[in-house]
Amino acid sequence: MAIHELKDQIARLPEQPGVYLYFNVDGDTIYVGKARALRDRVRNYLGAYGNDPKTDALLEEVARLEYIVTDSVVEALALENNLIKQRTPKYNILLRDDKNYPYLQLTTNEAFPRVLVARRVERDGSFYAGPFLPAHFARRTMSLTHRLFGIRSCNEVITGKRGRPCLEYDIKRCIAPCVDTICSAEEYGGAVRMTQLFLEGKNDELTTTLRGRMLDAAAHERFEEAAQLRDAMRTVQTLHDRQQKMATAELGHRDVFGLKLGPAGVAIQVFQVRGGRVVERIELGTEDAIVGSSEGEVLEAAIAQFYEIRGAPPEVHVPGEPDEREALESWLSDRAGRRVKILVPQRGEKRGFVDLANRNANIAYQTRFNQARAAQYDALETLQHVLALPTLPRRIECFDISTIQGSETVASMVVCEDGRMRRGEYRKFRIRGTTRLSTLDARLLPLATRRLPLVAGLSTSDEQRATSNERRANDDFAAMHEVVQRRYRKLLEQGGPFPDLVVIDGGKGQLSAAYSALEELGLANLVAVGIAKREELLFTRDRDEPIVLATHDPALLLVQRIRDEAHRFAVTFHRRARSMRDLRSELDQVPGVGPRRRKKLLTTFGSLAGVRRATREELAAVVGAKTADAVLAFFAARP
Fold this sequence. Notes:
Layout: H1 7-11, E1 18-23, E2 29-35, H2 38-43, H3 53-61, E3 64-69, H4 73-87, E4 103-106, E5 115-118, E6 127-129, H5 136-149, H6 167-170, H7 185-199, H8 204-219, H9 223-242, E7 254-262, E8 265-274, E9 277-286, H10 295-306, E10 315-317, H11 325-336, E11 341-343, H12 348-367, H13 379-387, E12 395-404, E13 407-417, E14 420-421, E15 427-430, H14 460-494, E16 501-505, H15 508-520, E17 528-531, E18 538-540, H16 554-586, H17 595-605, H18 608-613, H19 616-623, H20 625-636
Parallel strand pairs: 7-10, 10-11, 12-16, 16-17
Antiparallel strand pairs: 1-2, 1-3, 4-5, 4-6, 7-8, 8-9, 12-13, 13-14, 13-15, 17-18
Helix pairs in contact: 5-9, 8-9, 13-16, 14-15, 19-20
C-alpha cells in the first residue's frame, strides 16, 4: 500500500495544528486535510484501509506528503478551504459545498466600459458589484444593463470609426459607441455612469422612470413592451432589496518569507497571500552548508531567485533586513511596473504571519530532506513567460477537428483551468459546413496544403491527390473557423467567462482561421496559439517563426496534455458519429423502418449482419410481413 511507504516521514511530523496535502506520482494534489495534531491525524491513515472505497483509492494513490503548520485549528480550517478552492483535489469533492458567488465587473479602466461576470475581485481599476446570490441573478442583471442603458457586450477595440453598427444595436441592446455618428464618447459615458449608479443600488429614481414608461406603454396598448418594462422594474426592485454592494475591496496581496539558516544548509518557506488568503506555499532549500553567510545575504539571494520569473506583489514581508534592500526594491518595482516594498514587520498580525512562516521553515529544515529540491516553477507561469502573455493563463480552451476525408466532420473544445482539466465544461460540435474558405481571410490561402506544380512528367493521380489534399486542408480551416465562431458567439451572449489563452490543434493555417473568426466577433484581442503535430512547434500571430521548446519544458508538456485531451475527445465523438452514420446508411434507408423498428431488429438479431441472415419468417415475427419483404428486397439489391 502506498501510504505505508511514507511511514517514516509520518513519524517525524510535528504534533501541532496544520494542514496536510497528499500528492500522486504526477505531482497533482489529490487531497487536502486539516488536523489539530498533524502527526496523530496523518498516522490514523496507516490503519484506515478498508473503511470505505474512497479512502482505499486515496491510500493507494498517495505518493508524497507535505504539510503546513498553523497557529490554531481555526487557521488550519481556513487554510484548508483556500487550498481546496485553489487546487481542486479530486478526493475533496464532498467538502466543496461553499461556492464563490459571482460579481459584476464594470470595466471602468477601459475607454468604453463593459459589464462582465467575474468570479473574483481584482485590483485593476474596475468597479465591482456583488456578490450575487443566487448566481444566475448576476447574468440577469448584466442583461438588464444592456437593455436599459445599451452598454456594449463585445470585446472589440472601439475607435468610433466602424462603418455600421452590429446586430446588438438593431435589437436595442447597445447604443453603438463603435459608430461615433450614432453615439459619442460623452453619451456613452453618461450610460456608464447610470449603469454604475444602478449597480451601486441607487435605484429609486430608476424604478420611478421604469414605472412611468410601463404605464405609458400599456396606455398605448404596447403590451409586449409594457411586460418587458414590468419585468425590468421587478428585477431592479429585487436588486434594491437583495444585492450586496462591493464598490471597493480591501485586498491584501503580499508574499511572506520564512527562513531557517543552520550549519547543514538553509530552508525557506514563501506564503503567497492573495485577497487576504493563503493560496500557495512554495519551498526553497538546500542541504549544502552555507559557510560564513549571514541571514541578510541569504534573504537577498532568495528574493532575487524567487522573483526572477515571478511577478512581485505590492508588499514582500521578510523576517530580517536583507542586504541591498533598496536595490532589491528598485529591481522589483521596475519589473512590476509599480512600487514594491520589502518590509520587516515588528508587531501585530503581519509579524505573526512572518513568525508562522519561520516556524514552517524551521520544521522543513529539521526534517532534513533526503534529496535536494530543484526549483519547480509552475507550468502556467512558464507558459506565460514563453508566450509573453499579459496575465497568467489560468483558463485555457483548446480546439481540435476530427474527420476522415471530409466525412462526418466534428470538433471538440476542452477546458483547462489552473492546470486541471474541467470535464464538465467540455463541448463537442458537429460541423455544419456553413463557412466556406472564400469567406475567410485571404491569408489562409497560401497556408493550405500546397498543390504540386503542373510540370511535365506529373501524373494525373499525383495531381488529383494534391488537389484532394488541398481541399481537405481548406475544409479543415473552414471547420476551425466555424467552431471558434460558434463557441465565442455563445460566450458573448452569456457574458463569459473568456479564456486567457486559446490553443488550436494545427499550424499557421488553423491559427489564422481561428483569428479570422475572433476578429469577426470583435474578440481579436484574445490570445491564441497553434501547436503543430510531430514537430510540436508553437505558432503565434505575432511571430513569423515558430517557438521551439525543449522536449521536457513544462510549458510544452502542459500544452501537449491539453491538446491530447482535445484530440481524444474529438476522436471519440467522431467514432460515435461514424457509427451512427453507418447504422443510418443501412436500416434507415429501408422503407417502413423507423427508429422503433430499427431498434427492435437490432435488439432481436444482434447486428446488421444478423438482420441480413434472418429469414422472412424470422423478420415477419418482429416487424410484420410487409416490412420483412421490404428488408429482404433492400439487402437483395445491395452487393
